[in-house]
Every structure is written in C-alpha cells, then in structure tokens.
Design brief:
- The chain has 479 residues and is of the alpha+beta class.
- It has twelve helices and five strands.
- Helix content is 61%, strand content 12%.
- Helix 7 (270-298) packs antiparallel against helix 8.
- The model has no long low-confidence stretch (mean pLDDT 79).
Length: 479
C-alpha cells in the first residue's frame, strides 16, 4: 500500500470511527428512552437491561454505518480541500478518482459488512430484543397499561384511562373498559371516574376495583329467540364500587429469555424470507380463488352458455326482458337486485380479509428487497459525500454535519416512504425498496462529474448568461 493511500485512509477512518460511535450512541439512547417506561420499576436485573442494550445496538449498527460513511467522507475530502492538499495532489497529476480509490474500496467493504449484518445479525437481534422486551412487559402486566389509548394486552378486554398515578402507578382516572370475552363485539361496557389495580406476585389474576361508575350490557346478540330479544334488550346500572378479576395466566410466567415470537418477517434471514414468500403467495392466491369461486357460484354464472345457431329462436327479442310479461319482468329484476346486493355485501365483507392477507405478503416482499437495497447505502452515500466534500472544501463538524444530516434524512425519508407505498400495494415491493437508491444514484453521478471537472454544485453563471443576453438584445445600449 502506498503512503498516499495510507494517508487518505487515515484521514477517512479517524472521523468515521468518531462519527459512527457518536451516531450509534445517540440512536441507542433514543431506543432506550422509548422503552424506558416499560423497563423501569419492574424488578428487572441489570444483566437483562444490558442484554436489551446489546441487542438494540446490534439492530442499530446497519443504520449507523451509512451515516458514519457519509459524514466521514464529507469531512475527509473537505479537510483535504480546506488544507489545499487536494490542490497539491492535482498539481502532482493525481486525479480525484485516484485520490478517493482507497476510500471507495473501504466503502464497498463496509457495504458488504452491512449486508452481512442485515442478513444474519439483524434478524438475530430483532428476535432476541423483541422477545426480551415482550417478556419484560409481561413481567408486571399492570405496568404495561398506557394512559390515553386503548390497551389490548389483557386477554378479553380493551381498557382505556386518562391518567395513571400513585406510588405504585396503580391508580386510574376516567376508566373505560370493553369486555370482549363473549366474542360478539362490545356488548359489555364499564365506565368509572376512578379505579385501582391490585396484583400480587405469582398470582394468576389481576383485580380491578372501580369507583363511581356505570355498567351497561347488551343481550340482543346473545339472546336466541325473538321474544327474548324484545323482553330483555339490555341491562344497565350505576355503582359506587365494582370489583372483578382478569385471568392473566396466559400472558404471565416463563423466563425472560424465552422466545415467544419467532416468525416475524424482520426475524428471518434472506433465505428464510425467500422460502416463506412463495408459501404466503400460495395462501393468498388460494384465498382469492375461493372468494372468486363463491361469487361465481352465487351468481349462477356456470348456467350461462352459448346456444348453437340451429337452436336459436329468431322470434325472440334481442333485449331479454322484452320477452316476458310485466309480472315476470318485476320478478326477474327483483331477483337480480337481491343477488347483486348479496354479491356486493360478500365483496365488502371480504375486502378487509383480502387486504390484510395482501399486506402481510407485502411485508415479507418489501423486507426481502429492502435488505438488499439498504446494504448498498454505504456505497451510494459515499459517492455523494466524497465529491460533495471536495466541492465545499470545509472540514470539521460544522458544514459537513449539516449536509450529512440533510442528505441522510432525505435518503431515509424516501426509503421509508417507498416501503410504506409497497406495503399498501400502491407500488411493487421492488420499486418501493429501491426508490431511495433510484433518486440518490443520479445525484451521486452528478456530484462526481462536477467534482471531477472542479466545478461547484451550481454554476450560477450558466443560468444568468442566457438571461443577460436576452436583456442585452431587448434593451439598446446607451450612446
């Protein structure tokens, strides 16, 4: 390795290590802060918190690598330009391509490492971190209840409250509870001004004590006969104190290291995703086929067939309804309307099921292509950062940091936007995953060309000269 290559790599690696560790620390702390509410105060040992941080760090490394490459490439080339080392290299006959070659090779190597992380380490980290987080939440289910939104963690209930307070965070204000144990919708509703949660270590029950509330239950859906429905449509009552137990045995117990969820699309490697997608596609096609077959049978379309010309009755009117009496016409139209409404109702009821199955398939499809596309982000962002640094000729953390943040936010936003479009079936999974690369690669090529020709990002004179010429032609010169 030549001395120049060593010097260039050193000027790149020093800011890369610093920026990578800073970005990694910030992102890990952000993730820890978001999860802190469900970890703190649950009697979790320091060992498990460190495990949680370890898995979170492994998850965030593929995201921090591209930011580090982008920022360090801008800083390295900016420092070379600011210290006139880039100009000295040019005067010695060393081109920009030759100057950035060692950094480009390193960026490609980092992209390969990023791919290995995304394919092997990232699924492993997601698997363990998600299950550890889930087990920590279920260590004390009462602590998992969040104010301001409906909580579905407790089996058979939807619980909402405005505020949780008290020394043990077990006192509630403005409680709303939907009892879904009958599995027939929100038939039982309980509201209360105040409430209290009582749990004991090792108990399979969580006790709710509600004060100054209202109880309402519908019996229409559960009653089997019409007379019972008319006699007892619903019951309601007010109460000063109401107490009931919720069985939480199904969500408690087990070790914190137990893996409860293993088949989430983010927990699979590329090979596992590739094997899973055809199965999901087959299941989705089967659902569509069954729905289509049901509609085909209900419309009696199989009874429609073409008569041979020799059997046609030429005396019949070409408009089918004109061959029937008015009474028969009404009967036919009523029958057609009923069947059409039935088919429309079936389609409406099946829409959500079909959409959900399609979205589930899109998750796996998009994750597969996004892993490949995002692994190339190190290379793409390097070829944006290196020429940009040589153009602005500013080192340090000032201007490079601002540019790096703006570029990465744009890249990450377009990547997330494309994924969301793909998951909603607006665009294909391939296009949605690669949309950020499709936008950024032309920018990288443009910046590289302008840096090679030693031009700025924008040449203002190229825009002003045509306008100046037009004005000179219109406005005559003064004599």
């Amino acid at each position: 390795m030549k001395i120049l290559d060593k010097y260039i790599l050193k000027s790149f690696l020093v800011p890369f290590v610093a920026t990578f560790l800073i970005v990694l620390f910030v992102l890990v702390m952000q993730a820890l802060w978001q999860a802190f509410e469900n970890i703190a105060g649950k009697g979790i040992s320091l060992v498990f918190i460190l495990k949680f941080l370890y898995y979170t760090t492994l998850m965030i490394i593929p995201q921090a690598l591209p930011i580090g490459v982008l920022l360090s490439s801008i800083m390295a080339m900016g420092n070379l330009g600011e210290n006139y080392e880039f100009a000295a290299a040019k005067s010695a006959g060393i081109s920009l391509q030759r100057l950035v070659r060692p950094m480009a090779i390193l960026a490609i190597a980092l992209s390969g490492i990023n791919f290995l992380f995304l394919n092997n380490v990232y699924p492993y980290a997601i698997l363990n971190q998600s299950n550890l987080y889930l087990n920590i939440k279920k260590k004390k289910p009462a602590m998992a209840l969040v104010p301001g939104s409906f909580n579905a963690d407790l089996p058979g209930y939807q619980i909402k409250f405005d505020e949780k307070y008290g020394e043990d965070e077990n006192l509630l204000k403005k409680v709303l509870i939907y009892d879904l144990n009958s599995r027939k919708g929100n038939q039982k509703v309980i509201t209360a001004d105040r409430g209290k949660i009582i749990t004991e270590e090792g108990s399979r029950y969580m006790t709710f004590v509600l004060y100054d509330g209202y109880y309402y239950e519908e019996h229409i859906k559960s009653a089997r006969t019409q007379n019972k429905r008319k006699r007892m449509a619903a019951s309601n009552a007010t109460f000063k104190e109401y107490e009931f137990n919720i069985d939480i045995s199904s969500i408690m117990g087990g070790d914190l290291d137990t893996n409860r969820v293993t088949n989430h699309f983010r927990m699979l490697t590329l090979k596992e995703l590739k094997d899973t997608i055809p199965k999901l596609k087959g299941r989705y096609d089967e659902i569509l086929g069954l729905r289509a077959k049901n509609i085909y049978i209900s419309t009696q379309a199989k009874e429609l067939y073409k008569y041979p010309d020799s059997l046609k009755n030429n005396k019949l009117d070409s408009i089918t309804l004109n061959n029937f009496e008015i009474k028969d016409k009404i009967s036919i139209l009523n029958s057609a309307t009923t069947k059409t409404n039935r088919v429309l109702s079936t389609l409406k009821n099946n829409t959500e099921t079909v959409k959900w199955n399609r979205k589930g398939l899109n998750f796996y499809d998009t994750e597969y292509y996004n892993r490949i596309a995002f692994s190339l982000s190190c290379v793409i962002l390097f070829f944006i950062g290196a020429p940009l640094g040589s153009i602005i000729r500013k080192g340090g953390f000032g201007m490079p940091m601002i540019l790096a943040i703006a570029i990465y936010v744009t890249y990450f936003f377009t990547n997330t936007f494309g994924r969301n479009l793909a998951e909603e079936s607006t665009v294909s999974a391939f296009l949605g995953s690669w949309v950020s690369a499709i936008i950024m690669i032309p920018v990288a090529i443009l910046l590289t060309r302008r840096a090679t020709k030693d031009k700025g990002i924008f040449n203002i004179d190229s825009f002003l000269q045509p306008i100046t010429k037009i004005f000179k032609k219109i406005v005559p010169k003064k004599r």
